[in-house]
Each structure stands twice: as C-alpha cells, then as structure tokens.
Design goal:
This protein has 479 residues and is of the alpha+beta class. It has three domains: 11-46 and 62-119; 130-292, no CATH class; 297-332 and 371-477, no CATH class. Helices cover 38% and strands 27% of the residues. The chain contains 13 helices and 19 strands. The chain has helices spanning 140-144, 213-232, 274-292, 295-304, 310-328, 337-348, 354-368, 373-384, 395-410, 420-445, 449-457, 460-472, 474-477, and strands spanning 11-17, 24-29, 36-39, 47-52, 57-61, 69-75, 80-81, 84-85, 87-99, 109-113, 116-119, 130-137, 149-153, 158-162, 170-171, 177-190, 194-211, 238-245, 250-256. β15 and β16 (177-190) form a beta hairpin. α2 (213-232) crosses α4 (295-304). Pfam families: ApeA_NTD1, HEPN_Apea.
Length: 479
C-alpha cells in the first residue's frame, strides 16, 4: 500500500482537544508551511466570563492566539489514510480566527494553526520523546547513490532487480545513539509498456534516550539539509521526517514549516558525495554543526538565497568567517587578562588626561584584548591554503579588500554609490568567502586537504568563481 499523501489538499475528519472529549468536524491542511485546521464549530469558548452577579454575567471575547493546545483528530478514510493510520495530532495549536454568532444563531467556525502535525497517531504534547527517527532531504538519493540495482539485458530477456545493500550503523558523537542509511524501493508501472524500480534513501537514527520533534528538527534534520545545501550549492530542503512512537510501536509522519513537499529538479554534481565523506564522518557532522552554530546555517542561507543584495551576502559571510574563527579558536586573544589588568593600572597612574585614560581603559576591558577581524581572517586563509588552492589569490590584497568592504558595511561608512564594476567585485569577494568557509568547515569534518583540493579543482562552480575573479579583481587573482 502506498504511503504517499497529498498534504496540500484539505482532509476531512473529526477533532477534539487532547484534554477533553468534545468532538467537532473540520478540515485539516497539513502543508505547506504551518498545518491549519478549520473547524465547523469550536473547541474553545469564544467568550470568557469576567464577572458574575445575582442577576447578571459579564463576558468578553477570549484572548485567542496564545493557547498552544494539543488537538487530536481522526481523518476520514477507514482504518488508514493513504497507508497511514488515520489518527492525527496538531501540536501547539493557536486560534487564528473565528466566526461567531452573537446570539447563537447560524454557523460557527474556528481556525487553528499548529507548530507541526503528526500523522499516524495521538501524542500528548510537544514534550513527547521519540527513540527513533528517519528523514530525507532534497538530493539525498543522488548524493548517497546506494548500490543494489542490477540490470540484465539479453537478446530475448531483460530484467531489473534490487538487492538491499548491507550498511552497518555507526555511533553518533555525543548524541548517544546510532545512525544508518536505509534504502527503500518501490515498483512503478506505467500502463502496459513501462515499469521500473524507484530507490529512496533515508537516514535512520536510533537513540539510547530520545528527542522531541523540535529537537530532532534542529539537531538532525536541519544539519542534514545544511550539509547538502553547502555541497550542492543549491538549497536542499527537508522533505520527510518520521518518528517512532514507542508506546504504539508505529511510525508517525511529521508535517512542519520547513518540510517541503516540492520535488527537486536535477541538480549539478555536488562538491563531494557520500562516498567521499562516509558514514562515520556524516555521523560526526551533527555534533560539528552544533559546535559551529550558527555559521553553517549562515553559509547555507547565503547559498540558498542568491537574489539578495550582494552587500548583504558579503557582510554576512564576513561575519560568519570571524565567527568561525572564534569557534575554532575559542581561547585566542592578543592580551592576557593579567596584561589587561596591569595595563589599566598603569594608565590610571600615567600622565594622560583622565578622559583619555578612561577611553583607553574601557577599550582594553571590552575589545582591545581580542583578536581583530583582520587577524582572524588572515589566519583562516592560512588554514585553508592547502585545501582551497587560489581561493584568496594574493592573500594580503584579498584580506585588505574584504576588511575594507566589511568595515564599510558594518559601520555604515559614507561612500559613493557602487557602480557595476564594484558590484561584480563584491560578488567575487562574497564567493571567495563562501568557498573559504566551505573548505574550512569540511576540514573540521575531518576530510583530508588533498581530497578537498582535488574536489575543488574539478568542481565547475569553483573554477567558474576563479575565472570570474581574475577578470573582476585582477590585482588579487591575476597579477
């Protein structure tokens, strides 16, 4: 039985609050964006009592919008709906609008919007824990390219078969669980003349303890989407998230804002494939993502949204580069705490004017002890020199260009309106930061410099960047 579902079409059913048993019919739309429930009636009172007397009751409209209720429902369609148990749960539901008749005559409606929905079961609330999860993002099938398909073509016979590959699980760093890849296959027939086998790859997690749906989205689904976005150079949105309900021994399908039902067109080849990275380094990525946050997300966001002003992208990437260095070298500073204390004491006893002494002392306390942006960016260029050949051209000139642009944007320094040549220059600087960040993050995953360098050297997008940069910034990339 198929487990596909048209999540964008309203589905009829009956619904009730998790804590009550008043049942109201309605329509639920699971996607896109936040799940929405339109009820033909109401689950909560439209008016609340503010005061009572011997002969009167005073009411006022309820303060809708902050309820965060758990709503259970049963969808129409027999025991299952598109292959899933027809039970559904709407989590953190808030009233978005109502239709109320003043004197109780005529139809009444209430519309809820939830943080996310689960199809296949009823759970208590957003704090429910799940011990297993499986997920997919766009391009995951092509990226993993798992073996198993075999074809035989003979003179009078042709066959296509699938044998499930044996993929061991690996431990998750600091997440107390295990990760494996789970291939699924389905057979598709098109009339009497076409047939085929469709393969899909899922990442499956088994946890010693467990995680809430929110934690699974932020700790696993988002990092997976981020990694493939960085490697493909296009947004790879989450497409599927399922969680295992231990009590009922069944899988539940999650519908949430970031989970897309849209299919992804064929993308260009990624910078690195699953075979280059391997399952152990993929498992380590989820811990690295946490440690470097939010830098990988900033990088992926710039890659995914190329239509924003280049000044925005350049400033964000420069900020991300500084932040990455801080996370990789958390204890770095140019003056120790003792030297700062000693210097402030000397300033107090110096012949400097009091106001000048105060300004310098405050600067020493707040930021002069810290490594500057130029120093941090220079150290990053040195760290990726072997992994990303030519990414910064002549590094001193490149550093000066990036620092000037970053300071100009960050401090809103006055300047002339950028002409087309300056826009192209900013674009090349932004691209260089993108590739620098990509290389340094991949180094942190544990990939060898030679592997990263070889991948970049043969990657069309990286070579196109170098070619454009030579024309736009010749003093940095050509002379």
């Amino acid at each position: 039985m198929t487990r596909e579902i048209d999540a964008q079409t309203p589905i009829s059913g009956v619904f009730w609050l998790q804590s009550e048993r008043k049942v109201v019919p309605g329509l639920i739309t699971l996607a896109p964006r936040w799940p929405k429930l339109e009820l033909f009636g109401s689950l909560t009172d439209a008016y609340e009592v503010t005061s009572r007397g011997p002969n009167f009751v005073t009411r006022q409209p309820s303060r809708d919008g902050g309820e965060e209720l758990t709503i259970h429902g049963n969808l129409e369609g027999g025991r299952t709906f598109s292959g899933w148990p027809r039970r559904v749960t709407l989590i953190r539901s808030n009233t978005r609008r109502r239709l109320v008749q003043m004197f109780g005559v005529g139809p009444e409606k209430q519309v809820f919007e939830g943080s996310y929905a689960l199809l296949g079961g009823h759970i208590e609330d957003a704090h429910s824990i799940f011990t297993a999860a499986r997920m997919r993002v766009q391009n995951i099938d092509e990226w993993t390219a798992l073996p198993g398909l075999e074809r035989t073509i003979g003179r009078n016979r042709a066959s296509l078969s699938f044998s499930r590959p044996d993929i061991p699980s690996v431990a998750l760093d600091s997440h107390f669980g295990r990760l494996t890849l789970q291939p699924r296959h389905s057979i598709a027939f098109s009339g009497a003349t076409e047939a085929g086998i469709k393969l899909s790859t899922w990442l499956e997690f088994r946890f010693d303890g467990g995680y809430t749906v929110d934690a699974l989205r932020s700790k696993f689904l988002l990092p997976l989407s981020t990694l493939l976005t960085i490697l493909y150079g296009v947004e790879c949105q989450p497409t599927d998230l399922e969680v295992f309900d231990e009590g009922n021994r069944t899988w539940l399908k999650v519908f949430a804002y970031e989970i897309s039902s849209a299919t992804c067109g064929k993308s260009e080849d990624p910078l690195l494939t699953y075979r280059d990275i391997g399952l152990e380094k993929l498992a380590a990525w989820f811990t690295i993502f946490d440690r470097l946050a939010p830098i990988p997300r900033i990088l992926a966001g710039v890659i995914a949204d190329k239509d924003r002003a280049v000044e925005n992208r350049l400033m964000e990437l420069a900020m991300a580069a500084e932040g990455l260095h801080r996370r990789l070298h958390p204890g770095s500073r140019r003056l120790s705490e003792d030297r700062v204390t000693e210097s402030i004491s000397i300033l107090k006893n110096s012949s400097l004017a009091a106001d000048v002494s105060d300004i310098i002392s405050n600067a020493l306390r707040t930021h002069l002890w810290d490594l500057s942006f130029p120093v941090r960016i220079k150290e990053l260029t040195e760290e990726v020199a072997a992994a990303a050949p030519g990414v910064c051209g002549k590094s001193n000139r490149w550093k000066a260009a990036v620092v000037n642009a970053r300071n100009g944007f960050a401090h809103s320094l006055p300047g002339e309106l950028a002409d087309s040549h300056q826009i192209f220059a900013y674009n090349s600087l932004a691209a260089s930061l993108r590739w620098l960040l990509t290389a340094r993050i991949l180094q942190e995953v544990g990939l060898d410099d030679n592997l990263i360098s070889s991948a970049l050297t043969s990657h069309d997008k990286y070579q196109s960047f170098l070619s454009r940069a030579k024309g736009v910034l010749p003093k940095i990339y050509s002379e």
